[in-house]
Amino acid sequence: MPQTMRSVLAIVIGILHVLPVGLSAEARDTSWQTPRTAWGTPDLDGVWSNETLTPFERPLGQADKPFVTQKEAAAAAARIQAARARDAVVRPPKTEPPPVGGNVGAYNLVWMDFGSSVVGTNRSSLVMDPSNGRVPVRPEAEARRDEARRLSTDSYEHMSPWDRCITRGMPGGMFPAGYNNYYRILQTPDTLMIHYEMIHEARIIPLDGRPRLGVTARFWNGESRGRWEGDTLVVETLGYVDGGWIATSGSQRRIKGILHTSQLHVVERFKRVDEDTILWRVTIEDPEIYTAPWTVEIPLVSRRGSRIYEYACHEGNQAVRNILRGARVQESDPEPAP
Q1: Count of Cβ atoms closer than 10 Å to residue 123 Cβ
Q2: Domain boundaries in the chain?
Q3: How much is the CA Rg of the chain, to the nearest whole Å?
Q4: Angstrom distances, CA of residue 188 to CA of 41, 208, 216, 222, 332
Q5: Angle (deg, nearest 10), helices 70-88 and 3-13
Q6: Does the bond joining 211 to the residue before it have cis omega, within 30 degrees of 0?
Q7: pLDDT tens, position by position, 235-293
Q8: pLDDT digits (tens, 9 = 90+) for 158-211
Q9: Which of 44, 150, 226, 292 is a good FRET partner for 303, with 20 to 30 A between their CA atoms?
């Protein structure tokens, strides 16, 4: 990973930022009522975003700290603002190329979408269960992840489904990434669609009680079925292929590249809690990969008036081919020229 990107992630993982009041019980308008569709269900329509400075997992050594103080948040806010100011300074271009094998740089912060606040629940991690804020991954699953990384330049089959422009996965596609964190939700009486900005996917969720296709039907993103429980939309997803990734973005750090099996079972809950917030919660089970179920909670914040532009992942995308070509060159001439 280029040094610039490492620096960005180091800043983000340490951020415990000033919190928006959207989910604060004392600040919420008690007269607010859930908006409803013409057919009576809660209205989730609109463009929503989940960028956040909250770390996905709680940092090691903070198992007993599920929440942050406002003083810590304010200090972290100042750090990220200072980092963005430094990154915005115009610098003269370098006239000399980096040495062979050296750092060629990466995006600066103007291209990234880590947000300017953390989740309004005041949590110190997006993982809320187990109580230590850490995903209970089995050591053998981490070993398989590490082996795939080692082999990533041997074949495209060891690369991320995102790098290959297939999918970011589910629930991975609902986790924040470094950019393109918008989601367009459309509803009808019997269907809900989530249009992802990243990779330009459209996920169709039937709500009409239709049966599943059966155990022989397997999909990268599983097969989802939704139902309303009061004002909460519950979406259960089964029917996954073996070998997908639970998370494909570096924002999930340790969890990026953990494989899932066909036994993956995902339950999501969408609940609109105020005019500008849908609280999204997902519980993940996969007994061969994790020692226990685990749960992530992320607010989806309204981006009223915004639109999603096309993310043309494959047209002109040369990255996978160039990575593999470069690896073959290194294999034929492992010693770079001085």
Answers
A1: 21
A2: 3-332
A3: 21
A4: 10, 10, 28, 21, 57
A5: 160
A6: no
A7: 999 999 999 999 999 999 999 999 999 999 999 999 999 999 999 999 999 999 999 99
A8: 999 999 999 999 999 999 998 999 999 999 999 999 999 998 899 999 999 999
A9: 226
